[in-house]
Amino acid sequence: MADTFKLRLRCALAACALLMAGCGSGGGSTPTNPTNPQAATPTLSATAAQNGAVVVTLASTTSGATIYYTVDGTTPTASSPVYEAPFLVASNLTVNAVAEAPGYTNSNTATQSFSPNIPSGTLVWSDEFNNSTDANAQPNPLVWTYDAGAGGWGNDELEDYCGWGSSASPCSTASPNAYVGTDGYLHIVAEQPSVGVYTSARLKTEGLFSFQYGRIEFRAQVPEAQGFWPAAWLLGNNIATANWPACGEMDVLERVNAVGSPDWNEGSVHGTGFTGSDLGTRYDFPAGQTAAGWHIYGMIWSKGSVSYYVDDPSQPYVTYTSSSLNGLSGAVWPFDGGQANFILLNLAVGGSWPGSPDAGTPFPSQMLVDYVRIYTN
Asked: What global pTM score does this model have?
């Protein structure tokens, strides 16, 4: 009996010692460090595009949160694409999203599956540049924003880019450089407001709309004269985090200067280890045709493949694949990393490729775009 009492006493003393080790001098208990709060689970919302496709928007109510997402059913990690803009969903897939923020634990995973079952070749998104008014109209502000200003844009270009409504000199609201005309075309206008001063426009869907995979078409006609550099192209949404050229660039419509013989368009892709002329191919128009006429400039983007065509999607004039990088030191294929791409339309003046305008370059001149359309592959 005495031995039992001693044993109980020793246990009680040991328990007290353990308790006192976590106590302050006043004898009250000190709570452990509270765990960080959990970031809010991202929300997924979908708005209708065309023929069953939707545009998905992700958001988190946690201030400063970064949303990582996947579209292949896997759980997002810090290596997954960062959500930068609403993106088109036109195929059967599952979107998963996780929010991370400083001082918070990661959110739960938000998930939503989409099964639109859309046939190949279906139109799933477009901007037709319709204008039912009797005046020039603003390009859809829910789709298009603008690069603005001068500085050469990395190409020694000469123009100031002006957005809709920009009045900062040399831009002028009286002579907008980008507008949807009553003719139903997007007009991108290069002006020369004074000697040696040029204005134009560069529209983009960055932060507003993006897509991954599909067939995109631009029906356009472009000005052809010394110093003009029209383009319709795409950049990865991750340009904000990966920078160029790691984000990837796909040039669908691009040419410079006066009419060639034969006249031409160039389709190219750029990424880490392959910029400039590494992967660019010229398409020669048939005899009697020029880029000054109306043409459809298209790209077919599939996993591991980028193809370009003019007027006929069944006749690509070049196809690039990841194996096209063979022999290019340090080259990295950037077009299948999970990120969506945004669209750009611009008319540059001057630059490292075309050189400067000359006395025969007409101002104003304009690039016209009838539509931008995206189809399922």
From this structure: 0.90
